[in-house]
């Protein structure tokens, strides 16, 4: 063990606790031990930080850490609070700053940024706790082709997402999510092919290196997918654009739907939200161009420490 001390945060109190454990394990297992000393930091479902089974205060851990890789997928790790803490403690970290973490995580804000940049995104309606749900559902069932996609605004990994049609089903889905999440995004359902594109900064001689577009078929990553060169180019161009517009750092992954009339941007996963376990689209995309996880992690650690 030598070199910089890298703290890896995994777990957390969000709905993506188990997925974060998998990503964190992949990171902890693949950081080169000949270059770095690794601290495996577990955050339980109540938000308490632990190292080697011992509960510790975040400040005590961060004071003796040179750089942080945060794999806490979901609200707790991506809403900007931890990024603000890292900045206050003067600890370099992988991923965007507090404001841009929150903007990327918040599907409505990121879609609004896309629209401002003339990037096509599905029609949507944002509903918050306290609004008239009956009136909102009436508008949605009258003005959106059914079925529609009802999803939490800040959760990831498709958790809480339902595809429903008709007044009663839409009302039930929205009411359920409002009760547990406080805000809901309703989108038109785009019929077509799902795809995702990863972006890495300052890699292989490119300012924004694009990993090969991945086609998602039945929740499985397919590389190379059945995507034309024209569509691949548009996906890459838009992923680079959204990485910049949303103020991302180090790496990100943008999700899309490809319809007959073109590419639709759905959402962007910041570095914190990108899953790195072996079955993830990002990992598969890295492997398809001969990039190992130790190589990738070394690159991102060095970027953060700059």
Overview in brief:
The protein is an alpha+beta fold and 306 residues long. It contains eleven helices and 15 strands. The chain folds into three domains: 5-94, Rossmann fold, CATH 3.40.50; 104-119 and 191-305, D-amino Acid Aminotransferase, Chain A, domain 1, CATH 3.30.470; 124-188, Dna Ligase, domain 1 (2-Layer Sandwich).
Molecular structure report:
The structure is a single chain. With 306 residues, the protein is an alpha+beta fold. It folds into 3 domains: 5-94, 3-Layer(aba) Sandwich (Rossmann fold), CATH 3.40.50; 104-119 and 191-305, 2-Layer Sandwich (D-amino Acid Aminotransferase, Chain A, domain 1), CATH 3.30.470; 124-188, Dna Ligase, domain 1 (2-Layer Sandwich), CATH 3.30.1490.20. 38% of the residues lie in helices and 27% in strands. The protein contains 11 helices and 15 strands. The chain has helices at 17-30, 58-63, 75-78, 81-89, 98-105, 107-116, 133-143, 167-181, 229-245, 281-288, 293-305; strands at 5-11, 37-43, 49-51, 54-56, 67-70, 124-128, 148-152, 162-164, 183-188, 193-203, 206-210, 214-217, 220-222, 251-259, 262-269. Strands 10, 11, 12, 13, 14 and 15 form a 6-stranded antiparallel beta sheet that branches. The longest helix is centred in the C-terminal third of the chain and has 17 residues, at 229-245. The radius of gyration is 20 Å and the shape is globular. The two termini are 21 Å apart. The model has no long low-confidence stretch (mean pLDDT 94).
